[in-house]
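Worked example (supplementary).
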Amino acid sequence: MQEKKQVKSIPRKGDDLSEWYTQVCLRAQLVDYTPVRGCIALRPYGFALWELIQAEFDKRFKATGHHNAYFPLLIPESLLIKEAEHVEGFAPEVAWVTQGGGEELTERLAIRPTSEAIIGTMYSRWIQSHRDLPVLINQWCNVVRWEKATRPFLRTLEFLWQEGHTVHASEAEAAEEVQRMLEIYREVAEDVLAMPVIKGRKSENERFAGAVATYAIEALMPDGKALQAGTSHEFGQNFSKAYDIKFTDVDEQVKFGYTTSWGVSWRIIGGLIMTHGDDRGLVLPPAVAPYQVAIVPIMKTGDETVMPAAVQLRNTLASVVRVTLDDREQSPGWKFSEWEMRGVPLRVEIGPRDVAQNVVTVVRRDTLEKSTIPFDDVAARVPALLEEIRASLAARARKELDAHTVVATDRAAFVEALKRQDGFVLAPWCERSECELDIKAETSAVTRVIAGPADPGQVCAYCGKPAKVKAYFARSY
RNA sequence: CGGGCGGUAGCUCAACUUGGUAGAGCACUGCGUUUGGGACGCAGCGGUUGCAAGUUCAAAUCUUGUCCGCCCGACCA
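After joint prediction of all chains, the assembly is encoded as:
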């Protein structure tokens, strides 16, 4: 490769993941820092990526009967504090509005850290009968959590997400809903974003404040740390009792509903970046790439054949994929580097040699493989290539996850594996909070999800007491 | 929130130790030549040295405070 003498290159991904990550976020033009601490600006390219991810989730929410709605950003303190465990869990990271219109408010208003309180309050007004159930509502919005240490996408004070909030007449139905949405999260992460995850229930320590049970999908980052990429909660009747969500059932008894909530944030973009990116920058899975193809024309002075061909190529491709024709003045090499940094899955080069032979040159972002395909076959071949890229990214990421997941059954191996901080450690576990805290103190790792019951007779890999479950452990973001 | 590092042009940095007219490369603008892996020439534009106080004849430089960013830790749906 040419040495980058004019333009500073980013650190290699393997050398300094943190710095690499920050540089990719900025230089791919996804985000920029702002004068507001911990808050990022999502630039058009980053927002386009988010919109495409949103669309994938949203169509699945709609297909399972959910409707979008919107609730207030500001939540009166008196509502927020109704569910004791919930408030306690969020208290440290709530931002408060204490003044309005130049006057001190009689009651301060929380900027929503999540919307159970306000949505629950509204549901109590909307639900009277079993005929009103289930309520299946989702909200796309921003929330604020006053974090101490922030990073683009992974942890910001303000972030974009969706939060689904549902109410059901029975516990079984609510439980089913929670699993249904978790499975949608897994499906989008793995099949659309090509980001493999482990899926399961959270331990008591890791559970959402106020939940009876929390389930999550967790992805594995290249530095061996786990990233929570989506959660789905069963609340039992905790929130319906706190917010008075009651209905008269078919048996004429007045009952509290069973509620759930489930959420995915733009954090998943951070996961994507780290999962697929390489030394040249971002690598986007085709389904959510704002541009799936970038056409780079290469022209000699006075050439009059390349641009018309490139325009025709763009028009042809526009009917099957998201495509951009890069007709800026920069040199081809400069454009190659830029589109690589920005993660465009396929680059199509068209120059005099291609035009003369009635072909185009296609370069895959994931493998950097170059191939020549007949001009007339482009519209047919490109979608197939994009699918190959998706499959290849998914397979490679899956291989990574598997390669960095180890099983440990005895204490020495378990502790050693966790201290290596090299991915997931799957181990039989007693499921005691105290044991998890001890493990954390010694290794910095905690359970990420509980995968299922332990085998008969197994003992906890750490404390030696009888094992109840098999759990994945790792350090986390 | 604790420990460490940093903030000078859009970016990367020099000038700071030893106070004395704020510089370079890249980027940007114009013109010309170029275009198959970050092109070249010429001419330009670009600064409240993060912010605020203090010391001094004089502060990018010394002192204090503060804000922001990065790393490690703690904390954290």
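Two points are worth noting when inspecting this output. The radius of gyration of chain A is 25 Å. The domain at 17-276 of chain A is CATH 3.30.930.10 (BirA Bifunctional Protein; domain 2).
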